[in-house]
């Protein structure tokens, strides 16, 4: 959803209104989906996520010279902010794996995370985690965590 996020962010920065930006991207057919209903679903999802970003983050996402990797990372951050469970998984599991240099997250890591949430009453019946496209390696044992350079992490941390 990075490309769609960039399109919506640019439309929002031009008009200053989420509903108007949704209409702009749907009318222009920028999402490249087959049906209007699919476009509406994508727009709704992207706007929910982008709504969690600051003005500085939105401007950086929409800037034409922003590296694609940074845009991917900003969209990941937006998803983690909107979906609390995904954010907690990223903070508690992916972050630890990244800092320890562990290249993969296994099903057991995920199961331990879910069990911990259930034990402390934090899971509220949710038993699955939606993995964003591009972060699953077919044929692998588990999930591949998002790898960012330290320079990119420092730059993104200063945006907020």
What portion of residues belong to β-strands? under 5%
Overall residue-averaged pLDDT value: 80
Multimer state: single chain
How far apart the termini lie comes to 21 Å
Order of helical and strand elements: HHHHHHEHEH
Task: Explain how this protein is built.
This protein is an all-alpha fold and 160 residues long. Helices cover 64% and strands 2% of the residues. Strands 1-2 form a two-stranded antiparallel sheet. The radius of gyration is 17 Å and the shape is elongated. The protein starts with a helix and ends with a helix. About 16% of the residues have low confidence.
Task: Please give a handful of descriptors for the protein shown.
single chain, 160 residues, mainly alpha, two-stranded antiparallel sheet, 8 helices
Write the layout of secondary structure elements.
Blueprint: H1 2-15, H2 18-28, H3 36-50, H4 55-62, H5 68-82, H6 84-100, E1 105-106, H7 107-119, E2 142-143, H8 150-159
Antiparallel strand pairs: 1-2
Helix pairs in contact: 1-2, 1-3, 1-4, 2-3, 4-5, 5-6
């Amino acid at each position: 959803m990075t490309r769609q996020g960039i399109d919506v962010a640019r439309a929002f920065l031009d008009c200053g209104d989420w509903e108007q930006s949704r209409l702009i991207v749907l009318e222009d057919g920028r999402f490249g989906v087959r049906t209007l209903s699919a476009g509406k679903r994508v727009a709704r999802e992207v706007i929910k996520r982008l709504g969690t970003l600051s003005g500085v983050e939105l401007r950086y996402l929409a800037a034409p010279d922003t590296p694609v990797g940074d845009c991917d990372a900003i969209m990941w951050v937006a998803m983690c902010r909107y979906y609390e469970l995904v954010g907690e998984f990223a903070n508690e599991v992916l972050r630890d794996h990244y800092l320890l240099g562990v290249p993969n997250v296994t099903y057991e890591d995920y199961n331990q995370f879910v069990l911990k949430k259930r034990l402390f009453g934090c899971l509220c019946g949710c038993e699955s985690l939606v993995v964003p496209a591009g972060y699953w390696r077919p044929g692998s044992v588990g999930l591949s965590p998002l790898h960012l350079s330290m320079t990119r992490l420092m730059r993104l941390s200063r945006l907020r």
